[in-house]
Amino acid sequence: MKRFDDERQHVTAPTRLYAEELDAADKLAKYKSQFQISDPDLCYLDGNSLGRMPLETVKRINDFLTDEWGRELVDGWSHWIDEASPTGDLLGRAVLGAGPGQVVVQDTTSVNFYQLCNAAISARPGRKTVIIDSSNFPTDRYLLAGIAEARGLNLITLDNDGTGGPNAHAIANEHELITPEALEPFLSEDVALVTLQAIHYRSGSRPDIKGITDLCRRYGILVVWDASHAAGAIELDFDANGVELAVGCTYKYGNSGPGSPAWLYVNKSIQSQVLPTIQGWFANDKQFEMGPFFEPADHIRRFQIASPSIIGIRAMQASYSMIEEAGMKAISQKAALGTELILALYDAWLAPLGFTLLTPRDHNKRGGHITVGHRDAKKIAAAMRSMTNTIPDYRTPDSIRLAIAPLPTSYTEVYDGLQRMRDLVASKKYLEIQDNGSRVT
Question: Contact 301/102 with Cβ under 8 angstroms?
């Protein structure tokens, strides 16, 4: 992979011709035409928040509506009933490095997170401490705080971004990144659960998943990884890395659409040890006997709660089939090179304009997006949308995330977007932006 060390040293930006050469050599370039691109001039650098729509999705959902639901009616359930598990297997193969029978697609990341955290805590009876970090996604922090309060547990918040939180403890870190060495002083045989992000949603930093999982296992602690900002951007290799529990969404790098079903992963080695804490009828072993007692299935369906969203699953099948064909190795390599391009342009164009870098430079310690800071970040991000036809996203208090989604995004799209950002800020035209009244950032 070409690096920009020499160019960074001399603060010289790579040229647009170089970006075009990267596109010409890109083995994944053909996939861009398989997505709906309604405005060719738009630089979409927010695929880490909502992925573009594959054209195949339209066909698959339309076929489902007309050929299945429309014609089969209730008889369709004879083949819809178990689609959550084989689609989970597809997702597991395509992006998680997970063998069959360990992933189910259902509900939202929040529901799946709630279920697995409770299951992990119950699987470690007598332990009274749970750990999360302050930079974690708000839903995860709020849910775990609620679980801790309801169950009378001691919640430790590792303060890795300065915002604090319940029972906050300072922890050594750079770019929010928590290392096994910094984590270990907080571990003991009283800890039931640690939950962290596989990619930090704000900074884009990437922890040592295997190192942290192995460390916690030595203390008998279960780890729930939230891979929402990682799955589809980096190679995760859950099985090889010994991951036991994980959750994630499918609408970011998974390109499955807003509100698409989320997923949960439970390694086969512990499926018999963890029991579902939301006891839906789909989890019951003899589901259609509809008996008086809950008797969970002895496989991954024990974590399925209710009827699957078949329309949502069709969208997932379209997208993850494409991802599987492309291969996560090639996808992760493009994410690394694309973010390296962003870094080079940051050094040459953005740093001189007062931006700061909030993401690690080492591609092994970051995901598919780069985060930059600026005191006027909110105005700049809004102005990029309305004035330059470039879409990034803003995160409080002062950061802008810039992403390359490897399948639908070209290197020249990244280059052009950063160039427009540079010109906007250099001209100070962004100061003219008015608040549009939307609470979405």
Answer: no
Handedness of CA 179, 183, 189, 190 (dihedral sign): negative
Helix (H, G, I), strand (E, B) or coil at 171: coil
What pLDDT digit, counting tens, does each position of 398-416 carry? 999 999 999 999 999 999 9
**pLDDT tens for each residue of 345-390:** 999 999 999 999 999 999 999 999 999 999 999 999 999 999 999 9
Report the candidate in 96, 98, 189, 195 with the shortest Cα–Cα distance to residue 137: 195
CA distance 197 to 351: 28
3 state DSSP class of 45: coil
Instruction: Tell me the torsion sign for CA atoms 290, 291, 294, 295.
Output: negative
* Predicted model pTM: 0.95
Contact 348, 7 (CB under 8 A): yes
φ/ψ of residue 225, rounded to 5: -95, 130
Q: Which residue has the tokens 């050469």?
A: 21
What is the torsion angle, in degrees rounded to the nearest 10, for the CA atoms of residue 197, residue 111, residue 244 and residue 92? -90
Contact call for residues 45 and 295 (beta carbons, < 8 A): no
In this prediction, residue 5 carries a pLDDT of 43
Q: How far is CA 24 from the centre of its chain?
A: 28
d(CA 249, CA 407): 18
